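Appendix C reproduces, verbatim, an entry submitted by the partner laboratory led by Prof. M.T., so that reviewers can inspect both the input and the predicted structure.
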Amino acid sequence: MPFLKLIRFHNLSIIVLTQYLLQYLILVPGFKSAGLTPLLDHLHFSILALSTVLIAASGYIINDLEDYEIDLINKPEKVIINQYISVKNAWRMYWSVSFFGFLISLYLAFHVRNFPLIFIYPTAILLLYFYSKSLKKSILWGNVVVSIFCAFVAGIVIFAERHNILEMKELGKDVISIFIFYLLFAFFSTMFREIIKDIEDEEGDRKNGCQTLPIFFGKTTAKWVGIFFGTVLLLILGYWISSRNKNGFDLEFCYILFGIISPLVFSLAKLFSAKTKKELHILSQISKYIMLSGILYLLILSF
């Protein structure tokens, strides 16, 4: 269905999966141990997840609208605008999704008396709008915005329940450390992938006047920047696994080592020698797998 492709339904599913795993495998068990009740019941947590999904969906729509010419060069087989959905209808979808999302975020903020939530939604929408209009065509700024939003997916969950987390005392510190790890993992893994994608899409970006990192400084410099973010991610994973490894080669240790660290090391080793669009696309897919593997790590962590 063209609309589901336009809003990247599979990516939205990953957002929902991430938030539900964090809420019900990390936060809720911690609240129960501390004798606390979550501020968000099942219905209202689902509304929170829906508002996040609508933010992301609006971002994907405006991105496809603004990137139409670029996508015709970089990925013509995936273009939806003017192929299946007209520009006029795409704009209608964008405004409808954005407005509906704002309404439910407004309701949620008043329901939990967490009024700062009112400002998060329009801020995120505006940020993604300016990302698609100009920031993504500049050096690093667009990459940073996308990475912040990926971290926001986890951050909004803990922000909504921050009062309860503060009441958890020592147990709350453990929960916060898990969320900090996930915020950092989401940010740096996304930055790593974004740099690879910029190098992969250089041809289309250059023809449309973009000033991305590989265009402005060259592919070699862009690869070194990508390696930098990948190395920082590797150090974060190394620190995390060493701080939690008390039982030797247990399931958690093996999962991080072989499921996340190994493909990351492989990507870092191959990135500098990658020259063709196909090689870069493979590395982009591996980096996407690393991100998904990090999300599924929550299943291991919950045990």
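The first helix runs from residue 2 to 6. Additional entries are available on request from the coordinating office.
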